Amino acid sequence: MRPGFTDPVQDGQSCFRAVLEALSRPGRIQTVASGLTPPAALAPATAAVLLTLVDAETPLHHDAGEEADAWLRFHCGCPMAAAGDAAFVLSMGQPPAFASLCHGTDEEPERGATLIIQVKALEEGRGWRLRGPGIEHEHRLHVEGLPEGFLADRASRRGLFPRGVDVVLCAEDRLAALPRTTLAEEG
Amino acid sequence: MNRDEAYNFAYLDENTKRMIRRALLKAVAIPGHQVPFGAREMPLPYGWGTGGIQVTAAVLGPKDVLKVIDQGADDTTNAVSIRRFFNRVAGVETTTHTADATIIQTRHRIPEARLTEAQIIVYQVPMPEPLFRLEPRLAETKRMHALADYGLMHVKLYEDIARHGHIATSYSYPVMVDGRYLMSPSPIPAFDNPKMDRMPALQLFGAGREKRIYAVPPYTDVRSLDFEDHPFRPHRANACCELCGSRTSYLDEVVTDDRGGRMFVCSDTDYCETRQEDQRAENAKGAAA
């Protein structure tokens, strides 16, 4: 079994701040220096986000394989669930359709799932055009390794706001986020 | 800077921090929406900032520089004791200078200096529900937020105008966040409301007794409710600060004797002191020249 955080308190805090910053400023890339050596399927950023946010109170759904499954069960102690019942959904690049995920209710939209997608690469300055809360004018984000039609599928859920799914994109030791409020267009 | 090792870093245990952190992330994703959280009992009574302190504890890291203000002042009991608390349980550096702080916990004011992208402001909130005086049933206010049904608040403001000739709400003035959620800005003076609009810093709100967390991401529209023919007007005492001479800052009225003597001084002590120091330096330069 590969180890988790060397210092769970400080590593968890710095990773949380990276995720908080990423969700507050959608499309800006944050670096997570966690020093993690997770199972091969998981990138260090993906593993750090899961260790930081997932625990026994949050059902997880993932498609990262057996080694990652054992690692997550041991370090996070989280129950595994079907995609529609999970608070956190981890995808290795082929995320389930948004319609199949939990969106919360109009009264409790905070119950909507957080979708963590591990992608090949993230780059600022080109690609998608992002607007919305957290963005002064426009942020650009280029994401490599997402299926065709991802943005269209996400945009089709827009009318449900405040219900929705928040997306965290992880690549190597970097991450960026698309909260449900962000309007994203192909660049 | 000596951290008391008997406590976990920043007082709260890691499970609690994770729970608060998840609530914070959802709060940022749904600007202005109140997210319930399992507020813990803190070593200070309700009403002294238990919500703000838990939010700060979940966010704070060893490299942060913390500033705490109470009604704009750095030197009141509440501000001093919360600063000392975090110095003891987290060993973080504290400051009174707005520009040096990375996290600012506040009770009922926003600093006069413009906050930057590198800062987070944490508000202590006594009552997170803006509709609570109009509708006492929480189940009902939850539904009103779900339906964005805020007519009741407009009626209240209209009644203010009918009775007083103007909107007579001078603090805790309700705002619409990103055009969707009605939000209580916490009991800051209405004077501070315009500072929330498209603020570069992240704004987090914690209510300990009411167990709610909400947030306004940076550069988000925050509009004070008003009517076309009765636009929102922030109120400020018509005077200048007697210590630094500012005509633009928010003023406190201080009674100086029992014969009606009074003076106006800046409520933001750091802003006032910085201006006084600048003036002294300016005068010294003038005298030397």
Which structural class is indicated by helix and strand composition of chain B? alpha/beta
Shape of chain A: globular
| Order of the strands making up the biggest sheet of chain B | 1-9-8-5-4-2-3
| Number of distinct helices of chain A | 4
Rg calculated over all Cα atoms of chain A? 15 Å
Low-confidence stretches of chain B: none
Q: What this model shows, in words?
A:
The complex is a heterodimer of chains A (187) and B (289). Chain A has 4 helices and 9 strands. Chain A has helices spanning 8-24, 44-53, 66-76, 150-155, and strands at residues 30-31, 60-62, 88-91, 114-118, 121-131, 139-144, 166-171, 174-178, 183-185. In chain A, helix 1 (8-24) crosses helix 2 (44-53). The longest helix of chain A has 17 residues, at 8-24. The mean pLDDT of chain A is 97. Chain B is α/β, with parallel strands linked by helices and 289 residues long. In chain B, 30% of the residues lie in helices and 17% in strands. Chain B is built from 7 helices and 12 strands. In chain B, the strands form 3 sheets. Chain B has a 7-stranded mixed β-sheet. In chain B, strand 6 and strand 7 (181-183) form a beta hairpin. The longest helix of chain B is centred in the last third of the chain and has 20 residues, at 269-288. Chain B is globular and about 65 Å long. The mean pLDDT of chain B is 96. Classes of the chains: A alpha/beta (187), B alpha/beta (289). At the A-B interface, helix 1 of A face helix 1, strand 1 and helix 4 of B.
